[in-house]
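Standup notes
- HV: blocked on the assembly model, inputs below
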Amino acid sequence: MSRRVLVASRNAKKLNELRRILAEAGVEGLEIVGLDEVPPYEEAPETGATFAENALAKARDGAAATGLACVADDSGLSVDALNGMPGVLSARWSGGHGADAANNELLLAQLTDVPDERRGARFVSACALVADGREVVMIGEWPGRVAREPAGDGGFGYDPLFVPDGGAVSAAQLTPAEKDAASHRGRALRALLPALEELAVG
Amino acid sequence: MSRRVLVASRNAKKLNELRRILAEAGVEGLEIVGLDEVPPYEEAPETGATFAENALAKARDGAAATGLACVADDSGLSVDALNGMPGVLSARWSGGHGADAANNELLLAQLTDVPDERRGARFVSACALVADGREVVMIGEWPGRVAREPAGDGGFGYDPLFVPDGGAVSAAQLTPAEKDAASHRGRALRALLPALEELAVG
């Protein structure tokens, strides 16, 4: 019988990303469920100053409310010319929450006069697992730069504007498998695999 | 006969601020003129990474184009929870340039979930003077915090949201004289007074 693991998200792409990473690693015996598949509980606002703080708070809330093992992430884009912002405010950069198109448009407009040599950026992800009284947080980073116009329609968030180092295409132009292999969240989730494997066999 | 000094700005409030500070310091013999009172010249975009860099570039451009002594400032709001941004991007934070209301609204929305103890901020101003082959840049700071709603209709920029340390009212609720005495630009301009006095008697 498989063990249910709550991913504290309603984003189907995030759930599937974790499912793919578990499958590739050959981890069996875990059933990944999202927030829409558990009874609703009050989710605290993300007020932390760091990705790790927010990820851990979300995973604690989910585990406490459901009794399930809970994985939560907080991720964002850290832009050099913005001193590392949008950072923990990535999702609400344009004011509302999760307005990808508006966030991308605002970021581009803010960087209009920023020359190419100062457009460095990195995606950062903190992934936390809270289960059976244990807490783990892993950080993954994906270095690159902010393009001058969006490209591609895969991915989500700032993917259309983010060109990873070593390539010429945006994160939104990568296949899901290419993105998993390189991305910040992929790196952080793979770093969580040992802890997830323990759950599967535990 | 008075010597003309170009302030590289079209903002009448900035011109008057310098005029008041010169008058209070008893500096006579300087006629402050703005960009609307000199033949138009091409103004380079502000692409510097620091206030000082931008102020100096603007003052150099103005002096080179007009042959006048030129004062230029670059100022902005540095918010702790935004790692010091909007910073040099203060004027175009919401995408367009100089849209005060939109900038204030965006800043408030970005900080919605940021608790009171992390709402520290400071106004920073770099004021440069380029004249007779000499270059001077002075920095002034004004510490405070970002309020939860705008107040007052004086000032400009982020003044309605900025509550200076030691008081309970916003910068937009201060009289011009109160603001001159405390503000970042007031401090930077007063630090330039010795250099301006030399011009007046030179």
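- HV (later): unblocked. The longest helix of chain B spans residues 184-201. Chain B has a mean pLDDT of 93.
- Next: hand off to the docking folks.
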